[in-house]
């Protein structure tokens, strides 16, 4: 196939605006699935996706379509629709020359529409603005066209209208893809080079990759190598995804294909596969490194599950290159892993996939964000070359005397809300240490507000709170705004004067009193009464900011049973013994394991 007949595109939209439904219609129209097939939302393959109605993994489908007697190869790259997954969106977008920007004609432009639009702009992609759900009686295409014009300067005449549900306008949309989106700017004359936009693991065939071919041709049996190492590999598997695999013998520049080099053949996202003759000097990597915004400890529910969980995490991490995994251990929770995620939904989906796909039960600690510090004398810190350190765990924080500057990650948050909630939204954002940016008019009833916010203030429950104060009407999305100077301290928790390492947190000075009070109060609720009185203190650099006391029990639980009912007493002791397994003991105080998981959640 010549590259003039190839179109690589993606559908981008706010969640629920109809991407998956539209993808199904495109698949039907190109004969991949029969109309009305039960297997709807073909591209949402994973169980989590079906349950949550969100697309997690980007999956591609190569479609044939004949237009004016010419057959085109249209590569639809389905992209995930949630803020957390923007990494996957970015990855798949590097293979695209255009996007269908889908907007619900009833709901109108939402925060994520703004985010995906600016992503497409940044990547110089052709945008096909498309209104969906025009079949709805409350659809208001003119209002949404006005929104598109006022926010993105999109001319109303260029906007298409479809109903993905009813199939209206879908043929015209497909033809717009052919007419408006340019063919891939590639050359098939030079050496073979492809970059990997996705990988997954196959039990028998090893790592399979989704590759976008930048130049040259690839054939089964061809000798290739990964840019990351120089070992010679052989192309063993080559297929189009329609979205079912359709084996092919060769592929050419501009195509998006599945490639595999066998069980030992390797392959990872962002790497490049090149022909053996490819000159090393010519490589320019086009991938942006992943930034982990949220970290959490992952531990097995009990020891016997440790190995199983470890393997499952390893496999999932291979399938989801956006996570980072490092070994971690905690006196309370045992051996585990510290896992970096793009955001909270990412973390949630990861845990759910562990359970569903690998039957591994995991315990997750409360999420935290990475901080950065500049140390005064770099020599004081072991293992670090520069004077900047990224801290993903509060205990890594050096002595405050050695710290010159603190930085915390910020985001630029976009909120689209009906005007009547502007006051409530402003209060929420200011309360979360946000600084407002100028807002924009969306239409007469809606406004787009933007704030610079510390990430630590939104990772836990910002989205839920925003939804509840706006009756569900506001939408939120954020983009990375980098590290900025901050004033932070490490707050420790002491139980009867003994430090409990797992409960240390990094907090902003303005939130110190509040966090200290909240944490000690919560611990008082969660730690059961014991034989001794327990003093709970929140401490920063030796100074106590909050204190609670748990009074002691007067008697042994079983004392009153002495000489009485033996079986009952045995049963009680057995229960206590079992309970002990799930306890961590600090200074003779027994703390239930789940305390460590739950106390830091809001
Ligand atoms: P996604 O999150 O963008 O993938 O959205 P989905 O394709 O899952 O669609 C979200 C919801 O909108 C589903 O309940 C669809 O049935 C519904 N939907 C999608 N397209 C249309 C449409 O054209 N008309 C109507 N009435 N509903 C639609
Ligand atoms: Mg979907």
Automatic annotation (TrEMBL):
UniProt GO MF annotations: GTP binding; GTPase activity; mitochondrial ribosome binding
Record localization: Mitochondrion inner membrane
GO biological process: positive regulation of translation; translation
Reaction equation(s) it catalyzes: GTP + H2O = GDP + phosphate + H(+)
Domain of life, per lineage: Eukaryota
Cellular component terms per the entry's GO annotation: mitochondrial inner membrane; mitochondrial matrix
Key words, A-Z: GTP-binding, Hydrolase, Membrane, Mitochondrion, Mitochondrion inner membrane, Nucleotide-binding, Protein biosynthesis
Residues annotated for GTP binding in this entry: 13-20, 78-82, 132-135
EC number(s) given by UniProt: 3.6.5.n1
Main subcellular location of this protein, as a coarse class: mitochondrion
Membrane topology qualifier: Peripheral membrane protein
Domain named Tr-type G: residues: 4-186
InterPro entries linked: EF-4, EF-G-like_DII, EFG_III/V, EFG_V-like, LepA_C_sf, LepA_CTD, LepA_IV, P-loop_NTPase
Record CDD domains: LepA, lepA_C
Annotated function: Promotes mitochondrial protein synthesis. May act as a fidelity factor of the translation reaction, by catalyzing a one-codon backward translocation of tRNAs on improperly translocated ribosomes. Binds to mitochondrial ribosomes in a GTP-dependent manner.
Entry similarity comment: Belongs to the GTP-binding elongation factor family. LepA subfamily.
Stored PANTHER family: TRANSLATION FACTOR GUF1, MITOCHONDRIAL, TRANSLATION FACTOR GUF1-RELATED
Name of the protein: Translation factor GUF1 homolog, mitochondrial
Source species: Diatraea saccharalis
């Amino acid at each position: 196939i010549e590259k003039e007949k190839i179109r690589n595109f993606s559908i981008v939209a706010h969640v629920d605006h109809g991407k998956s439904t539209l993808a199904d219609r495109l698949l039907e129209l190109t004969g991949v699935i029969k109309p009305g097939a039960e297997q709807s939302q073909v591209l949402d393959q994973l169980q989590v996706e079906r349950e949550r109605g969100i697309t997690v993994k980007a999956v591609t489908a190569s479609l044939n379509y004949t237009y004016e007697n010419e057959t085109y190869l249209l590569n639809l790259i389905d992209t995930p629709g949630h803020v957390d997954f923007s990494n996957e969106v970015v990855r798949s977008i590097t293979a695209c020359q255009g996007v269908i920007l889908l907007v619900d004609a009833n709901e109108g432009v939402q925060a994520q529409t703004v985010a995906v639009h600016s992503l497409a702009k940044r990547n110089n992609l052709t945008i096909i603005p498309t209104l969906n759900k025009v079949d709805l009686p409350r659809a208001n295409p003119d209002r949404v066209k006005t929104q598109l014009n006022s926010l993105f300067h999109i001319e109303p005449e260029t906007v298409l209208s479809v109903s993905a549900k009813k199939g209206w306008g879908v043929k015209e949309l497909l033809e717009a893809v052919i007419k408006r989106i340019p063919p891939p700017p590639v050359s098939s004359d030079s050496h073979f080079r492809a970059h990997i936009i996705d990988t997954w693991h196959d039990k028998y065939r090893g790592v399979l990759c989704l590759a976008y071919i930048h130049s040259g041709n690839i054939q089964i049996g061809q000798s290739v190598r990964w840019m990351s190492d120089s070992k010679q590999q052989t192309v063993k598997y080559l297929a189009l995804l329609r979205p079912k695999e359709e084996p092919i013998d060769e592929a050419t520049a501009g195509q998006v294909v599945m490639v595999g080099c066998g069980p030992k053949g390797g392959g990872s996202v962002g790497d490049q596969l090149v022909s053996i003759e490819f000159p090393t000097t010519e490589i320019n990597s086009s991938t942006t490194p992943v930034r982990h915004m949220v970290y959490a400890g992952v531990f097995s529910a009990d020891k016997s599950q440790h190995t199983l969980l470890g393997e499952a995490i390893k496999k999932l991490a291979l399938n989801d290159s956006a996570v980072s995994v490092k070994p971690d251990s905690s006196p309370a929770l045992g051996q585990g892993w510290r896992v970096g995620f793009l955001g909270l939904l990412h973390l949630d989906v990861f845990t759910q996939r562990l359970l569903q796909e690998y039957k591994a039960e995991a315990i997750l600690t409360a999420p935290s964000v990475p901080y950065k510090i500049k140390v005064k004398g770099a020599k004081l810190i072991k293992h670090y070359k520069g004077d900047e350190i990224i801290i993903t765990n509060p205990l890594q924080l050096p002595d405050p005397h050695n710290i010159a500057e603190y930085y915390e990650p910020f985001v630029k948050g976009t909120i689209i809300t009906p005007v009547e909630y502007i006051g409530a939204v402003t209060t929420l954002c200011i309360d979360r240490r946000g600084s407002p940016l100028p807002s924009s008019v969306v239409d007469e009833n809606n406004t787009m507000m933007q704030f610079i916010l510390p990430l630590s203030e939104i990772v836990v429950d910002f989205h839920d709170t925003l939804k509840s104060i706006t009756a569900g009407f506001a939408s939120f999305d954020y983009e990375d705004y980098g590290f900025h100077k901050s004033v932070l301290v490490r707050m420790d928790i002491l139980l009867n004067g003994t430090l409990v390492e797992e409960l240390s947190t990094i907090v902003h000075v303005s939130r110190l009193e509040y966090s200290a009070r909240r944490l000690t109060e919560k611990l008082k609720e969660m730690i059961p009464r014991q034989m001794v009185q327990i003093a709970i203190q929140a401490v920063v650099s030796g100074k106590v900011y909050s204190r609670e006391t748990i009074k002691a029990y007067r008697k042994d639980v079983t004392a009153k049973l002495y000489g009485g009912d033996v079986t009952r007493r045995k049963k009680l002791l057995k229960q206590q013994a079992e309970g002990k397994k799930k306890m961590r003991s600090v200074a003779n105080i027994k703390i239930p394991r789940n305390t460590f998981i739950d106390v830091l959640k809001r």
